[in-house]
Design brief:
Largest sheet: none
Number of strands: 0
Shape: elongated
Pfam families: Com_YlbF
CATH class of one domain: Mainly Alpha
Order of helices and strands: HHHHH
Helix content: over 70%
Protein name: Regulator
């Protein structure tokens, strides 16, 4: 019974934390920028065009450089991606998405490290992920503790 009450208490605290996240500035800004992209006709046209090019890109990738349209489609894909990324409402959305993701990552670290410093928390960036990934747990040269 004690374990069950502890679990219920933890779940209640998690619900409170989720409610706080939903009211946070990064989340509210993220939702606002998402709505802006959904209302922006030019952004929606760019997304549709990008998806069409991406489908062609996926087809070309199956054959690699041997596909007759390889260079043309790769170039189109890079141009569409650049156009998409530089559109003001899409760029703002991606920035807000990153800020929210960073906050969620920090929150994950705080929760995990409150339990144990040896818990591996994915950072989303393999170049800066400080965990050893091997799970050796030895505390040796790999940096696991």
């Amino acid at each position: 019974m004690i374990g069950t009450l502890e679990n219920i208490s933890l779940l209640d605290e998690a619900d409170e934390l989720a409610a706080m996240m939903i009211q946070s500035e990064p989340y509210v800004s993220y939702l606002e920028s998402k709505r802006n992209v959904e209302r922006d006709q030019k952004a929606q046209e760019l997304v549709r065009a990008f998806l069409k090019v991406r489908d062609r890109y996926d087809e070309v990738q199956r054959f690699g450089r041997y596909h007759p349209d390889y260079k043309k489609v790769i170039k189109e894909m890079m141009q569409m991606k650049r156009e998409l990324d530089t559109h003001p409402s899409i760029a703002a959305y991606k920035q807000q998405e990153k800020q929210l993701n960073d906050l969620l990552g920090e929150l994950s670290k705080v929760l995990a490290y409150a339990v144990s410093k040896s818990i591996k928390v994915p950072t989303g960036d393999p170049f800066f992920d400080r965990s050893c990934g091997s799970g050796c747990g030895s505390g040796g040269k790999c940096g696991c503790h």
